[in-house]
Amino acid sequence: MHSAAHTKAADFTYSPPAAAQGATKILVKPNLGYPKGPPVTVGMAVLSKVLRGLRQVSPQAEILVVEGVCSKQSLAEIAGKNGLYDILDEGMTVLDADTLPCIAYPNRSPKPVRYSEMWAPKLLQEVDCRISVSAFKITSLKAQPLVSATLKNLYGLFPREKYKARSASSRGQLHRPSVPQILQDVYFSIGHLFDGGVADCTQKFVSKDWRPDVGTGFDLGHVVWGEDLLAIDRQVCQLAQEPIANYIEPIEQLRQMD
After folding, report:
1. In Å, what is the CA distance from 69 to each residue of 2, 23, 54, 148, 247?
2. For residue 126, which of 83, 88, 95, 151 has the smallest C-alpha distance?
3. Average pLDDT over residues 187-209
4. What are phi and psi of 141, to 5 degrees?
């Protein structure tokens, strides 16, 4: 059984996974999809500690901060507004996922939901280590709570041009038949490639509806991290005294079959 660590946000020091040790290239996927600060997006205090931890174990690494936004504003505008550029060193670069060359990643699930393959940046194959750094959000979709943490954070890597529906700003195709179901395909196409994750639980964000950028923040004061995205997301729910996200158990069952 995989596990995740947690501590008070003020005491958080990031200990990266083995894949980061002495790495040449590291990909960090932060939740910065909207032109709003925490808890809608990840806090710079947590993200800077993650970047600092990676830099300590990989002094020479090229660290690529990769995000694809869900907004009419550009990643550069959102990154500037949220203070991302202020926490980067010379070996760190911000890349817009929507501008990167993509390839099809096979869905390794024993029971694919919708996609036999999913398109995402080729860069995922070209790095030594991949880390998902998320906010912790709960929205409501079709009267069901939807948890967004380190796994759902990966939605920003999929090209909007391919997965958009009614809105060109989002990835509406990835909401059908449902996000929890599509997260199974996400996990088995690119999620399994991730070497670790960090969930900024300084606050939990709760929306009364489907909108992930309109809601209320509640203080939790913690950070959760580890090497398994599902274990992190499970720990986040327990810490926040929320029901365990409904995508976790089905994926865990499929992993046992894999």
Report:
1. 30, 27, 24, 15, 23
2. 95
3. 96
4. -130, 120
65 vs 157: CA distance, rounded Å: 11
104-117 CB burial, b ≥16 within 10 A, e <16: ebebebeebbebee
Interval 12-46: pLDDT, tens:
999 999 999 999 999 999 999 999 999 999 999 99
Residues 6+ apart with CB under 8 A from 157: 29, 66, 68, 97, 120, 121, 124, 190
CA 31, distance to chain mean position in Å, is 6
Alpha-carbon gap, residue 201 to 204, rounded angstroms? 6
What are the CA-CA distances from residue 233 to residues 71, 99, 149 (Å)? 25, 28, 6
pTM above 0.70, yes or no: yes
Tens of pLDDT, residue by residue over 126-154, are: 999 999 999 999 998 777 889 999 999 99
